[in-house]
Amino acid sequence: MQTEIAKASADSLARAREIILNHGAVAFHTETVYGLGANAFDDGAVRRIFELKGRPADNPLIAHVHKDYDISALTDAIPAYAEKLREAFLPGPLTMVYPSAGKVSALVSCGLDTLAIRVPSSLTAQALLKEVNLPVAAPSANRSKHVSPVTARHVYDDFCGEIPLILDGGACEGGIESTVLDCTGEIPVILRAGLVTREMIERVAGACGVYEKKTGERPKSPGMAYKHYSPKCDTAYYGSDELNMALERYECEREAGGTPCFLCESALARSLAQRGCFVLDLGETGEQMAQKLYELLRRAEDAASLLIAIEPTARGGVMDGVFNRLTRAFGRNTDEA
Length: 337
Ligand code: TXA
Ligand code: MG
Hints:
Layout: E1 4-7, H1 10-21, E2 26-28, E3 35-39, H2 43-53, E4 62-64, H3 80-89, E5 94-99, E6 114-118, H4 123-132, E7 136-137, H5 152-159, E8 165-168, E9 179-182, E10 189-192, H6 198-205, E11 209-210, E12 234-238, H7 243-255, E13 260-264, H8 266-274, E14 279-281, H9 286-303, E15 306-310, H10 319-329
Parallel strand pairs: 1-8, 2-8, 4-6, 5-9, 10-11, 12-15, 13-14, 13-15
Antiparallel strand pairs: 2-3, 3-7, 4-7, 5-6, 9-10
Helix pairs in contact: 1-4, 9-10
The chain binds threonylcarbamoyladenylate (TXA) and magnesium ion.
């Protein structure tokens, strides 16, 4: 199969519609990361998404809809705080988990009685969702466990020859996946941190919890149980007070003939570069780090044999999401090895 990369146009959108209505999958730009979408009503198409990604069968998908889509047909009982949050943040990088009305394929939610719904703000995503006028089940368009894609090229690298079309909207400005928010209880609870932060949700909803899995319990957002977002090169992670150890590791790798590389925030990146080290600069703010993280992880796997991350010192806001992805990518924060 040829994999075409095309900007959204009348032609490419008509082709995307044709593919999705005929049980196929199309990758598309969103403001967070690229998604790999199929008709959420279509069991076979949803199954194909799991197969393409090599995704564990107990990790549910998000249903994406356009901004005028009436989600009341897909959900039961939307709490009042959720209406306020929708008003404040949608379209945008916030996924809301509701009691499901059971209308989409049961495979989307992996048999859970809830449904995650997202209304992306990306013009490319909106154009596609309008064109099909259906809920589109879409995980990030990467192979399971690999780094999420933030350019059409990244999607192509993972799925060349296996999907017919990638709708190219350029680089994703957000850079990490949407915040996943459980809206089935008395107050909203963050299941996956992202660009819509706890502070932002609290301001609108009055309260916001953060889900923490109890030992032994099945996680509420099953995706969070897996090692994720990992580059294919070797990785190491050091605290901001462990720089000497990190430098020793760098030297060891270099002496062994490898190509070590640091990943760290700007101030440290500048001083390591002055010492002649190979460095990828994450930026200074949470927003910058979110935007650059996956791009740099993908770059590292082509350029380095060992990627050494040094813990950033920035805290709060979007950094919750950045830390979550960073520690998962470096195998620091998971149930699994
Ligand atoms: O920004 C995003 O959310 C991107 C773009 C493509 O929209 N999508 C994305 O999908 O990140 P994925 O499949 O890589 O991650 C979906 C997350 C997983 O952690 C999954 O467990 C959780 O959402 N999730 C999906 N449905 C859920 C549900 N009913 N209850 C709890 N968690 C759910
Ligand atoms: Mg993903």
